[in-house]
Write a structure and sequence with these properties.
Elements: H1 8-17, E1 48-55, E2 58-65, E3 71-75, E4 87-89, E5 110-112, H2 117-121, E6 127-131, H3 152-165, E7 172-177, H4 180-190, E8 195-201, H5 214-224, H6 237-246, E9 255-258, H7 271-274, H8 281-295, E10 298-300, H9 309-312, H10 314-328, H11 331-337
Parallel strand pairs: 3-6, 3-7, 7-8, 8-9, 9-10
Antiparallel strand pairs: 1-2, 2-6, 4-5
């Protein structure tokens, strides 16, 4: 099965069962450093999809399309991969009218379409999306599996090695969803000269520690560490927070923060159930506000979306990416692009 045939609905359900974006549902080794590729060896930009060998006998699935600079890199949430960015919730689907995040509960029809983020962004700059290990379980182009739970700094290093091996060189605009937030932060902290902008799509960050206490964070971390055969990707959030704290702060750059506004649970769900995973929807929303403040970013809270904003309101994500791409371009690049 090709990646495009794996539905986002399946990916979201797998993620939820492993306690993905906040652990709110109770169901719910890397080789040596990569060698930089000289800019002069960069191949002409062509549409590409397939496995990229990153060393140590490992390969990562990558797909890239479009032309232009900076290159937009789409970083998916826990349990999800490249397919997330090529699918949307049918605009006529009743899930749009639900007063809770229906998609997170497996409702609604998600489909590939030209209005999705990946194809839309490819029309104005280069864009790449990829599969971390263990987010897709079928097909001939599955990223090499790793031990789970994994560390976010290793995920950031895998991404960098994948881009270099594919000769998809910076500067980059990182677009991070959910768990992808900490991967993107670590990537940008480690390689500040290569990242010229950020779009955070209902993204996780260490700032959750300023919203809830250590016991709640520990409970949330424990749920996110769970790996099951149906949803094997598992993550180490407290470890990621410590690694981020040990690095130099992110440099100031053009940024947008998008926040989901549909509650995770139906309104009838008790407060006890809402807080069962340690972090509630209101906690998550408060973290998004703190994140926007820390990045000096434009904050968009009226998204008419659940956690997967790229599925509910893809044009909002595309518009944010275009804003940051335009801000990150040099005057010469902007003139060449017609903007």
């Amino acid at each position: 099965m090709q990646l495009g045939e794996v539905t986002t609905k399946t990916s979201v359900l797998r993620a939820l069962h492993a306690g993905a974006f906040a652990g709110i549902l109770l169901l719910a080794a890397c080789s040596g450093a990569s060698t930089p590729i000289p800019v002069g060896n960069r191949a002409p930009a062509v549409d590409f999809s397939g496995l990229v060998q990153i060393g140590g006998g490992r390969a990562i699935y990558l797909e890239c399309s479009g032309t232009g600079s900076p290159t937009v890199v789409l970083i998916s949430g826990k349990g999800n991969g490249a397919a997330d960015w090529s699918e949307v919730l049918d605009p006529s689907d009743p899930a749009h009218d639900a007063d809770y995040d229906a998609v997170a509960w497996g409702e609604g029809h998600l489909q590939k379409g030209e209005l999705a983020v990946f194809p839309s962004v490819s029309r104005f700059t280069r864009v790449c999306a990829y599969d971390r290990p263990d987010v897709r379980l079928e097909g001939p182009e599955v990223s090499t599996l790793v031990a789970q739970p994994h560390q976010a700094d290793r995920a950031a290093d895998d991404l960098h090695r994948t881009l270099l091996a594919a000769v998809e060189l910076g500067p980059y605009v990182l677009v991070s969803h959910s768990y992808g937030g900490v991967v993107g932060i670590l990537f940008a902290q480690t390689r500040p000269a290569e990242v010229n902008g950020l779009v955070m799509v209902d993204a996780a960050s260490p700032l959750i520690q300023q919203v809830v206490g250590p016991d709640a964070v520990a409970k949330w971390d424990a749920l996110n560490r769970i790996s099951v055969p149906e949803a094997p990707e598992a993550v180490m959030m407290i470890d990621a927070f410590a690694k981020i704290a040990a690095m130099p702060a992110l440099r100031k750059m053009p940024s947008v923060v998008l926040s989901g506004d549909k509650p995770w649970h139906r309104p009838s769900v008790s407060q006890e159930m809402q807080s069962a995973g340690g972090v509630t929807f209101n906690d998550w929303r408060a973290m998004q506000r703190l994140l926007a403040g820390s990045l000096h970013a434009r904050l968009v809270e009226a998204t008419k979306s659940g956690h997967n904003i790229q599925a509910y309101s893809p044009q909002l994500v595309v518009d944010a990416i275009r804003e940051i791409v335009d801000a990150a371009r040099s005057p010469g690049e902007a003139a060449a692009s017609g903007n």
